[in-house]
Amino acid sequence: MKIKPLIIYMNKTLTLRKLLMMALLAGSISCNEAKKQDKKPEWVSLFNGKDINDWIVKIHHHETGENFGNTFRVEDSIIKIRYDQYGDFNDQFGHLYYKQPFSHYHLKFEYRFVGKWYPSAPEYTLLNSGVMFHSQDPRTMPKEQDWPISVEMQLLAGLGDGKPRPTGNMCSPGTNVVYKGKLDETHCIESTSKTYDGEQWVRGELIVLGDSLITHIINGDTVLQYSKPQIGGGVVKNYDSTIKVDGKLLSKGFIALQSEGQPVDFRRIEILNLEH
């Protein structure tokens, strides 16, 4: 065999191998990219069932991080909100914030009202709590700020008087929303939910699409929708004026569980991140 044809043959063979390897590599990369795109977001538990190390406490009249009176505690895989170590309630409204903000997501949780309302708390807090979202960072709140600038999914229970008392309402400390096509400066907007008495678990859900559509769901029923959450309105006191920029749309923020005088339990707090 002649040497020159052999060299040419070997070069052609090596080139073909290189081309084949490149094609296989490109196919592998394309397949991996397709898998990434096809991968569906997964539900993640915000509460590990053991402790609140991933959460930040802020209670009115106290510095950020001080869990006054052991208000927020974990027992039996439940976040329990209690006031048995309080004296006078003294408007010590509190919130327990998950450690990071979110923008587009689906939140699921279960709650129940238990025990007796703390008698020196304001009367409106009877069988009343909430889940705050699009909230300011608790570390930006002065010690004497009473409520976070946020939007609230208000949670209520029936008062046993036979009158309707829907849950899954919207309240707006330091914020406004667009409801039925108009900017609504009402502090609270009622949902269409049924009335649920205390001492029973109720499933709440929030679907939050940044500064666009917000949906409240109670026990599987859509009970309220609104849009364009934004800073504005009153209710909040003693805030840092550089934080409260009225008219600014809220596209993301912190999620928090509320304490305001009524013992309440939370469990099975999960989030599906829709930011993809």
List the helices and strands and how they pair.
Blueprint: H1 3-38, E1 43-45, E2 55-59, E3 72-75, E4 78-81, E5 94-98, E6 104-113, E7 128-135, E8 151-156, E9 169-171, E10 175-179, E11 182-184, E12 188-189, E13 202-209, E14 213-218, E15 221-231, E16 254-259, E17 264-273
Antiparallel strand pairs: 1-17, 2-5, 3-4, 4-17, 5-16, 6-13, 6-17, 7-8, 7-16, 8-9, 9-12, 10-11, 10-15, 13-14, 14-15
Distance between the terminal alpha carbons, to the nearest Å?
61 Å
CATH architecture level-2 label of the largest domain: Sandwich
State the oligomer: single chain
Mean pLDDT metric: 91
Rg from alpha-carbon coordinates: 26 Å
Q: Choose one word for the global shape.
A: globular
Which regions have little confidence, pLDDT < 50, spanning 5+ residues? 5-10
Pattern of helices and strands: HEEEEEEEEEEEEEEEEE
- Strand residue percentage: 35-45%
Q: What structural category arises from helix and sheet content?
A: mainly beta
How many distinct domains? 2
CATH class label of the largest domain: Mainly Beta
Note the total helix count: 1
What's the story with the biggest beta sheet? 10 strands, antiparallel
CATH topology annotation of the largest domain: Jelly Rolls
**At the fourth CATH level, what is the homologous superfamily of the largest domain?**
Exo-inulinase, domain 1
Instruction: Give helix % range.
Output: 10-25%
Number of strands: 17
